[in-house]
């Protein structure tokens, strides 16, 4: 029997909740449910410290320079140890420059393993973008770094849950700049990548996509803006000519009601909050961030470093477990 390739879990910010989410899930037996082996990419000593948050004295066993095993009670987890941070200087909720370099190293190692086929995919815990940039790795975030390392020009951010999946044409952009940046080519690419990913990675034979307007009431025939007629409708028309089952532009104030009932496989949104407000209303704890358009599988938790919760043990593992589950399903 051929051994399954592992899913890699990058630890994220050593000062955030990532390490204790991993340990909390391990101790609760939540990682036992997965068929594929899991391998954490991070810092073994930081994980050991995270175990103390749950009154567990974790044991570390070193097999080689990078390969370690962390054991908490009756459960063990393989760890790729890429940093040796001084745990006394890595305070909960207080990220420092060494953490920034370490976060980037975890991501880059995992991407490289996935690209050469030694891992089935990667699941990422939250990072601090500002600290990473201060450490000399100049990218706006996970998505941009992954796209560059994979040699891909266009990727799509999708946020997903059981009831709703949304993909974004624009992401981290001021609302006043959205209409200036929107163009038919970008909208069409987002529709196309969403369609292909749902087919190839989610196993949906003929995805049904709803494409949203940017203005209230889909512009009300130009009364509230012309982006629908000028930019969005032409992209939908071209997508349909390629055999993509896309419709719209739909008014966002009503469409999500029908999408959440299962009438669409995904909703293509024009800007960040248009998609994330309804997504987080339905999937605040168990939402998953998926990067579409990469040659590798990458899912992520749908929350930040939660410095206010770091070291308390109170952070919810639901998003991490959902991200691992989705990555494993995508491998099938």
Could you explain the architecture of this structure?
The protein is of the alpha/beta class and 332 residues long. It folds into two domains: 1-152 and 294-332, 3-Layer(aba) Sandwich (Isopropylmalate Dehydrogenase), CATH 3.40.718; 154-292, 3-Layer(aba) Sandwich (Isopropylmalate Dehydrogenase). Helices cover 39% and strands 19% of the residues. It is built from eleven helices and 13 strands. Strands 3-4-5-2-1-6-13-12-7-8-11-9-10 form a 13-stranded mixed sheet, sandwiched between helices. Helix 8 (227-241) links the parallel strand 9 (208-212) and strand 10 (245-250). Helix 3 (97-115) packs across helix 5 (142-150). It is elongated, with a radius of gyration of 21 Å.
Q: Which properties best describe this structure?
A:
single chain; Isopropylmalate Dehydrogenase; 13-stranded mixed β-sheet; 11 helices; 2 domains; 332 residues
Layout of helices and strands, plus pairs?
Layout: E1 7-10, H1 18-27, E2 38-42, H2 44-53, E3 59-62, E4 67-72, E5 75-81, H3 97-115, E6 121-124, H4 129-134, H5 142-150, E7 156-160, E8 165-168, H6 175-181, H7 184-200, E9 208-212, H8 227-241, E10 245-250, H9 252-260, E11 266-269, H10 272-283, E12 288-292, E13 298-301, H11 318-331
Parallel strand pairs: 1-2, 1-6, 2-5, 6-13, 8-11, 9-10, 9-11
Antiparallel strand pairs: 3-4, 4-5, 7-8, 7-12, 12-13
């Amino acid at each position: 029997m051929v051994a399954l390739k592992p899913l890699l879990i990058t630890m994220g910010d050593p000062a955030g909740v990532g390490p204790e989410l991993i340990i909390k899930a391990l101790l609760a037996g939540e990682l036992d449910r997965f068929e594929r082996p899991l391998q954490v990419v991070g810092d073994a000593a930081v994980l050991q410290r995270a175990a103390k948050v749950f009154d567990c004295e974790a044991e570390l066993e070193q097999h080689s320079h990078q390969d370690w095993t962390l054991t908490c009670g009756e459960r063990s987890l393989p760890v790729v140890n890429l940093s040796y941070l001084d745990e006394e200087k890595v305070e909960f909720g207080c990220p420092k420059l060494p953490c920034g370099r370490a976060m980037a190293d975890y991501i880059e190692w995992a991407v490289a393993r996935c690209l050469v086929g030694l891992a089935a995919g990667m699941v990422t815990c939250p990072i601090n973008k500002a600290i990473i940039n201060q450490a000399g790795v100049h990218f706006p975030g996970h998505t941009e770094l992954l796209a560059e390392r994979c040699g891909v020009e266009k990727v799509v951010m999708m946020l997903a849950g059981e009831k709703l999946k949304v993909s974004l044409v624009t992401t981290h952009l001021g609302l006043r700049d959205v209409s200036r940046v929107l163009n038919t080519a970008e909208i069409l690419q987002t529709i196309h990548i969403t369609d292909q990913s749902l087919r190839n990675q989610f196993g949906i034979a003929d995805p049904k996509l709803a494409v949203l307007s940017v203005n209230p009431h889909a512009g009300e025939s130009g009364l509230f803006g012309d982006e629908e007629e000028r930019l969005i409708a032409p992209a939908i028309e071209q997508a349909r000519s390629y055999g993509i089952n896309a419709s719209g532009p739909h008014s966002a104030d009503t469409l999500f009601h029908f999408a959440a009932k299962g009438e669409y496989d995904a909703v293509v949104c024009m800007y960040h909050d248009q998609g994330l407000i309804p997504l987080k209303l339905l999937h605040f704890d168990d939402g998953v961030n998926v990067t579409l358009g990469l040659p590798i599988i990458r899912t992520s938790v749908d929350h930040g470093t939660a410095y206010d919760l770091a070291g308390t043990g109170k952070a919810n593992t639901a998003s991490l477990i959902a991200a691992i589950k989705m990555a494993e399903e995508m491998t099938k």
